[in-house]
Amino acid sequence: MPPSPSAETRPLVVKLGGSLAASPALRQWLAALRRYPGLLTIVPGGGPFADAVRSAQETLRFSDAAAHDMAIMAMEQYGRALCDLEPGLLPAATPQEATATHARGEVAVWSPVAMTRADPQIPASWDMTSDSLAAWYAHEAGARALLLIKSVDFPPPPGGEGGGAASIVDPCFAHYARGLDVFIAGPAALREAPETFARGGLPGARFDFTREQSIAS
Predict the structure, then answer these.
(1) Per the CB 3.0–4.6 Å rule, which of 46, 158, 191, 200 could disulfide with 7?
(2) 142 within 8 A of 179, measured Cβ to Cβ
(3) Under a CB-based contact definition with an 8 Å cutoff, are residues 165 and 214 in contact?
(4) Interatomic CA distance for residues 159 and 131, integer angstroms
(5) Could you give the CA distance from residue 11 to residue 72 in angstroms, rounded to a whole number?
(6) Among 116, 17, 121, which residue's Cα sits nearest to residue 70?
(7) CB count, 10 Å around CB of 158?
(8) 3-state class (DSSP) for residue 84
């Protein structure tokens, strides 16, 4: 595997999956991330808050545009919960606020509502999930590396279910993530994650854009 990015040269954006909300692994990942010595911004998934939006849309039949906006608010809610769970995590609405947080030696947690509402080019669709929003934010913030932390492994283990990146990221991801060094980490990477982060490396498997170009949109 190619060497992972160095903390000295690669500010890191981490998308922390909402699917981890009910897992003991969530706190383990948060503790491991605190060991990263570089500039770190966490992008929260939607977690149970986004699940509530999906359920409500089925019942109330509001538009995908409204659901998209509500799902981004769900990310912000999950982010606030993360800040409460782990000391040293602070909400930041913009890259400038994140920079100020980093200057204090803290980890920024992106609050996405303001930035996403200000950009009408972001698709108001369930096809644009927090994975792609994390990639979009990484570019906006000038980051070079993006780590997606998932509740499943990528690539799937031998004999396991799943068909590669198309089953683990949204259809927009390859488009928004171009130009970034992308890694995907699941449960198998958690054991070594604290030491890997402490060295300034990234756990997990590198996302191969050539192999996964078929899912670009």
Answers:
(1) 200
(2) no
(3) no
(4) 26
(5) 23
(6) 116
(7) 5
(8) helix
What Cα–Cα distance (Å) separates residue 72 from each residue in 4, 135, 143, 179, 203? 30, 15, 21, 24, 27
pLDDT digits (tens, 9 = 90+) for 130-170: 999 999 999 999 998 999 999 998 765 554 444 455 568 88
| Residue in the structure block whose two tokens are 């204090």 | 104
Q: Is the dihedral of CA 208, 17, 153, 204 positive or negative?
A: positive
Two tokens, residue 103: 């200057």
For residue 141, the Cα-to-chain-centroid distance in whole angstroms is 14
Single pTM value for the model: 0.89
Instruction: Name the pairing type of β-strands 145-149 and 107-110.
Output: unpaired
Torsion (CA) 156, 161, 165, 169 in degrees, nearest 10: -110
Strand runs labelled E in the chain? 12-16, 40-44, 89-92, 107-110, 145-149, 181-185, 205-206
Sheet containing 89-92, strands listed edge to edge, beginning at the edge strand earlier in sequence = 89-92, 107-110, 40-44, 12-16, 145-149, 181-185, 205-206
Taking only the tens place, the pLDDT of each residue in 160-201 is: 444 455 568 888 898 899 999 999 999 999 999 999 999 999
Q: Do 104 and 77 touch, CB atoms closer than 8 A?
A: no
